[in-house]
Amino acid sequence: MKYIAHINVMPLKELLDPQGKAVNNSLHNLGLSAVDGVRIGKHITLNIEAGSKEEAEAMANDACKKLLANPVMEQFDLTVTEA
Q1: Which of 19, 62, 69, 70 is the most buried (most CB within 10 A)?
Q2: Would you state the pLDDT for residue 57?
Q3: CA 33/CA 24 separation, integer angstroms
Q4: Model confidence over 19-55: pLDDT tens digits?
Q5: CA–CA separation, 66 vs 72, rounded Å?
Q6: How far is the C-alpha of 61 from the C-alpha of 55, rounded, in Å?
Q7: How far is CA 56 from CA 3, 4, 9, 59, 80, in A?
Q8: pTM, whole model, 2 decimals?
Q9: CA distance 4 to 47
């Protein structure tokens, strides 16, 4: 079966996010001072051919741990749906 993995990779909450800080400041300069705590990450989708949803989740999790997310600086969450 075909599955789609949706992966969100974000900087660890304990770490400074300079890109998020810059965007946060720019939003304030644009008059959007009610916006705060901006964090910038990345969204990745993977098309996976697997025998089951659990197998697709395991493959996506493995991809995140080995390549897509740096565990020293980033955390990730993923969801897998049928394509």
Answers
A1: 69
A2: 98
A3: 9
A4: 999 999 999 999 999 999 999 999 999 999 999 999 9
A5: 12
A6: 10
A7: 7, 8, 18, 5, 7
A8: 0.89
A9: 5
